[in-house]
Specification:
disordered N terminus; protein-L-isoaspartate (D-aspartate) O-methyltransferase activity; single chain; 9 helices; alpha/beta; ten-stranded mixed sheet; 320 residues; Rossmann fold; globular; two-stranded antiparallel ribbon
Length: 320
């Protein structure tokens, strides 16, 4: 069943939807577990940074944001942040902590409403897209909930879900790029240490080393209520490790699929919800809410147009 959400529920602004269709080649990876989303900047400083890299001028809006608080204020003013919970989460999780300014990105650009490169040819989604997805999942991301973040990338959305489900909940984050998983592990460790007031852990040493363990034969790192898993979420061994006999209350997929993957729908508990971009990889897609009824029936609701890179197919990384 496919339906449309009322316009008052959640929709990206027209400028953002237009910009999403204009993503430059430099910011369009061929296959990713990450979302995208761009808008338009007008600052001369930003234009110079963009032109120096041969990028499109239509990359971001709200360039005046020089802090995480101003970024959230702008998202709220656009009507993208509606609930107090989502607003509070995005105020507490600083986006700058999850962007890699060593790539040549000015630090303050972290707060622009734009996707940004994070390494491995991947990008962190625009804040407006993150806000939209958080709002769509808010009703299911309750304290104690079990969440799955497919294509966790920078770890930013994972951190937001971690805060929403609380200490009694659990977020399983799956990322296929090892460098990104390690990078996000550092960022998540710092974020958790700040939130819960503990000594900052380290992936390589320090107060509480984040040593990988094995789960269903897959390396897994635990940070507070977060489990970081390396692999392709559509491959059976990774699915088994991610689920560990559990079903999820909510699933976020940060990439586009032609149809909601049955492998992931099977992990969704009755009454659960998935948010995923549905459509062909080389065209505009539809951000969709996929709900599983108590009887197992699937209902798909279109929200807005987006343009995201495709989710990697099973065994895409296997040598030929």
């Amino acid at each position: 069943m496919l339906s449309k959400l009322p316009s008052c529920v959640c929709a990206l602004p027209r400028a953002l939807s237009h910009a999403l269709a204009s993503t430059s080649a430099a910011h369009s990876p061929t296959s990713s577990g990450l979302g995208g989303g761009v808008a338009q900047h007008t600052s001369p400083a930003w234009r110079g940074w963009v032109q120096a890299r041969g990028l499109s001028a239509a990359q971001a809006i709200n360039y005046a944001n020089d802090s995480n608080q101003k970024l959230v204020d702008s998202l709220k003013a656009q009507g993208l942040l509606k609930s107090e919970r989502c607003e509070a989460v995005m105020r507490q999780i600083d986006r700058r902590d999850f962007t890699t300014t060593h790539l040549g990105i000015p630090a303050h650009v972290s707060y622009s409403d734009s996707q940004l490169p994070i390494g491995q040819g991947q990008s962190i989604s625009a804040p407006s897209l993150h806000a939209t997805c958080l709002e769509l999942l808010e009703s299911h991301a309750r304290p104690g909930a079990l969440a799955l973040d497919v294509g966790s990338g920078s770890g930013y959305f994972t951190a937001c879900l971690s805060l929403m489900v609380g200490a009694e909940g659990r977020v399983v984050a799956v990322e296929r790029y090892q460098r990104l998983l390690e990078q996000s592990g550092f960022a998540l460790a710092r974020s958790v240490a700040t939130r819960v007031g503990t000594a900052e852990p380290s992936l390589t040493g320090g107060h509480a080393p984040l040593r990988p363990e094995l789960q269903a034969g897959r390396p897994l790192v635990r940070i507070h209520n977060i489990e970081l898993l390396l692999g392709n979420a559509l491959e059976e061994p990774v699915l088994a490790a991610a689920a560990a006999g559990r079903q999820f209350d909510l699933v976020h997929v940060g990439a586009a699929v032609r149809q909601p993957p049955p492998e992931l729908l099977a992990l969704l508990r009755p009454g659960g919800r998935m948010v995923v971009a549905v459509g062909p990889p080389a065209a505009m897609q539809s951000l969709a809410v996929v709900d599983k009824g108590q009887d197992g029936a699937i209902t798909r609701t279109a929200v807005c147009d987006v343009r995201l890179p495709p989710l990697a197919q099973p065994f895409a990384d296997r040598p030929l």
